[in-house]
Amino acid sequence: MVLISLLMRRVGGPETPVETTEMVDACRSLLELMPPGYPHRHAALAYLGVALSVQQHPSENPRVIAIFRESLELFDEAIRLLPPGVPFNVQYRCNRTAALVQLAECTNDRTFLDQAVADLRALRTENPGNASVDLWLGMALQKRGERIGRPQDLDEAIPLLRTTMIDLPHDHQGRMYMLISLGEALVVRGSYSGSHRAMAEGADMLRQALDASSPDMPLRGVGVLAHAANQLNIAVREQRWDLLDELIASLRELLSATAEPSRVKAVGASRLGEALNLRYRLSQRQADLDEAIEATSSAAAIDTGNVLDRVRAARVRADSLQLRYDAHHDEEDLRVAMNVLDGARAELPDGHPLLASLNHDFAALAIVALARTRDSAYYVVARDLLREAAEARYSPVKARLVAAESLLGLAVAVRDDATSAQTAQLAVDLLPVHAWHGFDRADQEFNLAMFNQVATDAAAAVLQNDKASAKQALALLEKGRGVLLQQALRTRADLTRLRERAPQLAKRLDTLRSELDGEFDDEAQAAADRRSQAAHEWDRLVEQVRRNGFALFLEGPDLRKLRRAASAGPVAVLNVSDVRSDALILTRRHLRRVPLPGLTPAAVRERVTAFRAALDEKPDEQGTPAQQQAAAAIRDILGWLWHEVTAPVLAHLELTGPRRGGRWPRIWWCPTGLLAALPLHAAGTGQPGESVLDRVVSSYTPTVHELVRTRSRPRPPETLRRLLAVTVPESPDTAPIPSASKETRLLAERLPGTTRLDPSDSTPQRTRDELLRHAWAHFACHGNQDLANPSQGELVLTDGRLTVLDISRMRLDHAEFAFLSACDSALGGKDLPDESIHLAAALQLAGFTHVIGTLWPIGDAPARRVVQDVYAPQGGDRFEPEQSAFALHRATRALRERYPDSPWAWAAHVHFGP
């Protein structure tokens, strides 16, 4: 027994065949020497079971399956022979469940996994707090969660594995295996759910596993493979293409060091092919594609006995073949790729999470064949597979959205209106799920950015149908745009009626929304776990409320309620899509569409890029040739906006200027996509009557629903209707703002009761505190927008900053008016324009009914004049926020008179609100 114990310490697994074979032989010899009633026979049986279980990698080879079945029988016999009170009961039962997990991997029979999990749950109940039981349960759940696609298993496994990991000594021989198990669980959970935080933590675990290993360690190859998979994810998410070179080099090294055919060699070759495919897409370097074809072919030639290995390798090989077909149009490549994927699809059981991705890949090949042959049978195949993938509730939401987006494009291209309408709704319904409110903000934004044209394309697809309803298109836009805004508003909904019927339920929802609407430490995994748990419970309780008499609880408004947005003037929702572009014009009585054929995403992107470039040149009619050219470019863009966007809308509404009595008509612009970065209110040609500014008073709204909400906000108490003036004329790393102090001094003189914060007092915390005591706020400070990460846009204050995310989390129930005399305060992010993530929208979400902000920086003198004119009393003895849109319109027209040929000086300010 001593010899066996010593051998056990040397056994590392299938990669150490000499030690494992020696161990098996020693155990069998010992058992032959032990009579049936020998007291320690149970230990020898258990040792032999362990030796057999580590002798082979799980595979479909009948000999391997027989070995694991024998191992299971040995553990059963050892447990049966165990005398009462002997402390090996837990250990033997854990080992038995390990054999069950291995049999599940060999046979693809999930009943073995179910039995293992059930046995471990029972063992955990009998032995609470036992680290070994928690460890084995975590690993069994991880295997089941990954193999059959049960995210809830991974959610349960990860905390168990993480806790065990914390308690495991750093020099423990199983630490590397534990790191790999936890890392893989996190990466798989992240890929299923879209949580990049989980994937990042998994990457850290896998990196630790590699750092803790030496080149000759048996498990090092497994660690390299797991780390490689995650590095590919990071490279794609962060566009860190430099990681590909490092990754390809490490995989080549691993393969050259792995001489014999094995699972490590097969999976490594497949991973190498995947990395090379990606690098080929970037570089179009033929050598990369040739090597990828060779690597994926060698991977296919090695049978690991694992169906998931084969399926993943098939996807990569088919991708390589399609890339070569695209380059050389060899029909044999297309045929082989389709056969490879068809075989992989046949290997997976119904309901497997990988099926959606496989169906999408096969459909993509069918679409290629359709384009080549014009055979409509390929369309039917592609349509049916993409629909199946998009509707696959068992698959990751990302895979479903990819399929839905592809199907929408395909159906639109062939004018299959029924399919496009159905798919449009499905795709938009998936967007809030992909940006689930239990994720941290960075994950939500990244997940939405991946599909930032789905809502507009869905609406356009519906409008392409001659029988389509503008109502359905508007509903799609309202659900698929401003997703983060909708989530935030749901957690702030009025629960008065619910409190009357179910006070305890309302109380619990109040607690949960405080957690969800609060600030979580984005660096703390425990905080992320708490947020996820709170979001799960919130969703469950909302469904419970809806089943108990509140069917529309926290649902968005229907069209009848949306018409309230147009109570003071029309709302023009400007949908921009490659499918078609239209203005959806909402009035108190009607919803009409006006085609905008000259408006395309490419045309908008080109104008936005040119507009920002011209602003960077500091346009000047009398300046350098470059500045004069920039000035001309801006005027041309305003003319284009007039002809292609605003003039058709105003003509349809017959808005030509002030009505009788001098009352100006109003309009609310709701642009989609990057169109939100352009000044629609300033569109015009310079010719008489051809200017938005001469026809209407313009305001903006992120969504129609948001305008309905701001219209319904109550007037704050008179005691709070006074101004907070925040003054920060100078801050580190920014240019001085000479007018800041002058602005706030002027406001203090003009508006009695103003609280003017001097620079030394204008700190983030003091500003937060004072906002609770003032209904009006004026910020005379620098504003910065991070176009790549718009939630980190900021107001630069003394000794700190207030970010877009900070402001959006505030609850200012009595706020009414805010003026952002700060740069870029109404400019959203480049990848998430439809989420309206900027300072002005954040202030509206926090509670302000009216907000004035800017689309770009302007000079000190024009900025000061706008402030003076906006706050000037009109028809009364004091400033009234309800008139702020008219006040800004007057100020802008006055500034245009002063700088008629310089729209960059007079058109930057915009108004949000009713």
UniProtKB/TrEMBL annotation:
<dbReference type="InterPro" id="IPR011990">
    <property type="entry name" value="TPR-like_helical_dom_sf"/>
</dbReference>
<feature type="domain" description="CHAT">
    <location>
        <begin position="637"/>
        <end position="913"/>
    </location>
</feature>
<protein>
    <recommendedName>
        <fullName>CHAT domain-containing protein</fullName>
    </recommendedName>
</protein>
<dbReference type="Pfam" id="PF12770">
    <property type="entry name" value="CHAT"/>
</dbReference>
<dbReference type="InterPro" id="IPR024983">
    <property type="entry name" value="CHAT_dom"/>
</dbReference>
